[in-house]
Amino acid sequence: MFRTAVLRSAAAATRAIRPAVQQSAPLARRSLVAPRSAFRTAAPKAISVRMYSSATGLNQQEVEGRIMALLQGFDKVNDPANIKPNAHFANDLGLDSLDTVEVVMAIEEEFSIEIPDKDADTIHSIDKAVEYIVSQPDAH
């Protein structure tokens, strides 16, 4: 019922305005509508540039250096002199299982990747971490 009343009043308003608009239409067209040539401007040229990362990804020496630097700053390493490319987290660096999880999480942050739990469980040494990171194409 309300809908019908609104529609009727809208139709009545439209009918009341229509005669006034039709009388002034030629004047309105002449004064408000500009020729098409007035709107034609030079189209801006789009310049697109694509940036690509290196096609080869990270090399082993770079990954190894970054992981070793990360471990240098890790305060739970028993002796920073033991940080070598083949160092085992528990045996050589004295890290327990929770420390190893923290190291793997730090590696994830360093290389902007997410290491699934099943893969993280296999990373127990620097060389295993390097091997995993080098095999990830989205690591950077």
UniProtKB/TrEMBL annotation:
Pathway: Lipid metabolism; fatty acid biosynthesis. Residues 61-137 form the Carrier domain. One of its GO terms (molecular function) is acyl carrier activity. It comes from the Eukaryota. InterPro entries: ACP (IPR003231), ACP-like_sf (IPR036736), PP-bd_ACP (IPR009081), Ppantetheine_attach_site (IPR006162). It is found in: Mitochondrion. Keywords: Electron transport, Fatty acid biosynthesis, Fatty acid metabolism, Lipid biosynthesis, Lipid metabolism, Mitochondrion, Phosphopantetheine, Phosphoprotein, Transit peptide, Transport. Transmembrane segments: none annotated. One of its GO terms (cellular component) is mitochondrial [2Fe-2S] assembly complex. The keyword Ribonucleoprotein does not apply. Belongs to the acyl carrier protein (ACP) family. Carrier of the growing fatty acid chain in fatty acid biosynthesis. This is Acyl carrier protein. The gene is nuo-12.
